[in-house]
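Job type: complex structure
Entries:
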Amino acid sequence: MSIQKVQNNKAWFMVLPVLILVAISAIIPLMTVVNYSVQDTFGNNEFFWVGTEWFQEILSSERFHNALLRTLLFSGLILAIEIPLGILIALAMPKRGWGVSVCLVLMALPLLIPWNVVGTIWQVFGRVDIGLLGHGLASLGIDYNYTQNNLDAWLTLILMDVWHWTSLVVLLCYSGLVSIPEVYYQAARIDGASRWAVFRFIQLPKIKRVLLIAVLLRFMDSFMIYTEPFVVTGGGPGNITTFLSIDLVQMAVGQFDLGPAAAMSLIYFLIILLVCWIFYTVMTSYDNDEQTNGPGPQ
Amino acid sequence: MLELRNITRHQGEEVILDDISLSMQRGELNILLGPTLCGKTSLMRIMAGLDKPDRGELLFDGVSVLGMAVQKRNVAMVYQQFINYPSLTVFENIASPLRVARVEKSQINRQVAEVAELLQMTEMLDRTPDTLSGGQQQRVALARALVKKADLVLLDEPLANLDYKLREELRAELPALFAAMGAVLVYATTEPTEALVLGGNTVCLHEGRVEQFGPTLELYRTPASLRSAKIFSDPPLNSAKVECIAGQLAFANSQQKLGINIEQIPDGKYTLAVRPHHLSREREGLDDLEVKGSVSVTELTGSETFVHFSMEDNPWVALLHDVQNFAVASTVVFYVKPQHLFLFDSHHALVEWPSTKKN
């Protein structure tokens, strides 16, 4: 006697809404970009095949190299500042009492402000004629002008991003820290472990997972930063703050070079994917390597 | 030797430790027995130096250690939760107290190997705690306490989070480990059975006060007070209010005579108490006390029977060492040997009578 297996294909209907949603939100737009990136057009909705020509052009263009380097440098600096700073602030925050809610609200405030408002705030804040920061520095005799000086422009953007996004790292780390039971600290005290050992062997292992999320989020976000530098510096002075995203918009909207812009979008996307994968692999493989030395005298 | 003198601690308005004085010897196991929130952990935190008492003195080998920092006291503590360094191997976890103490490398290797051997953990030295079972994780924590060669070892319900089987297994190993430590050992538990298996001395704690302190078996056999008898009884102690009129005992509720004459005690109100396993279905002697009640529920385990019945409106339970089923609301009769009866006076202190010889 054989058992006839009844196929029930109704299940596919259940998946259909999700498929449609994903198609509209991700697959179709992405494919449109792919479509543009391999064709050229002279208007009139006429397209013809160019193969990988746009990709070659972008990859060999100095303009792209420079923008990529600037963006990588920006993301690197942002991570180097915001991650340690975020951990330090999270460690210093109170664990109980009325201070907790005060700190949490204060930390959450910058995150609630829309990007372009943040840009506008800092654009005004830094102005030499009327801005509190710009004018204040000028009256102290410090020569500061983000619209003319390259270094000042970078400092302003980095300061702005640190102000805007360090709280995200703080909140993530804090959530990891408060989940550590009090007995761990008690046990460490009885063991005679130093403050560093407590951080290194109790707190860090416990916040490692949220820290990975913080690093990925901050990398992706800073690597894709557009609105704030667009509002504050508009990519200048010169093109010293023209990051990939600003360059891309100039190419696609300003010059209407749809083919190269599409190719650049795809390369941009692949770089983010690649770097995130590297971060993820490195940070999770850390688990297995980091088991050599105990909390002895450091 | 660890000495506590009049230790008192408040938390807000509440007194959590009330005038506790104890003295504990090296190499002896001291069990803190009592229900949750009776002050066991608070007392341990003071012994460890994590908290300071509001009043009182703490002496170690005759020297006051109240002002000494935790790190300098050479204390080890094992908790109900399995506390280990999550990212370090078992070897490094065990070695951690030695590394803090800056012990030489070859010495560390030797001592860790010794302790691992004792706890049968040699094969697991390269693994991290999260890959181990709960029982093994607690072994690592015990090994850390053991390797430290601390003067004072505090164990705060170390077996409470383990499942039944592992608990029994580890409990059987503990006395040998404790003997190897040679420290003042303090062990907190809520379970009377655990105290009895481990032996040593027991402190009965009730609402931050010491009810009784002495050798565990002695405490079990002759509890000084009703409270300490109740703390040291699992399943719960059976009790009933009785009155003594002219040397005749009678139940306070029904005035029913018990048929026991005790001329040596003054008239007044008393509490009669019997441990559940001392209730027997058979009359063994002429002077056995007979108790009657109506069955409310019968719980059967594989080899034992718990008969819950209402005795003079008091909820009583009998533990029988075989499997018997009793119909609900049926009347049951049990007998108790006179030497198994406890009598407590109106201040809940044990009343001595000539036949107070318990087993």
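Summary: The longest helix of chain A spans residues 258-289. The interface with chain B takes residues 181, 183-184, 186-187, 189-193, 197, 201-202, 204-206, 287, 290-297 of chain A (CB under 8 Å).
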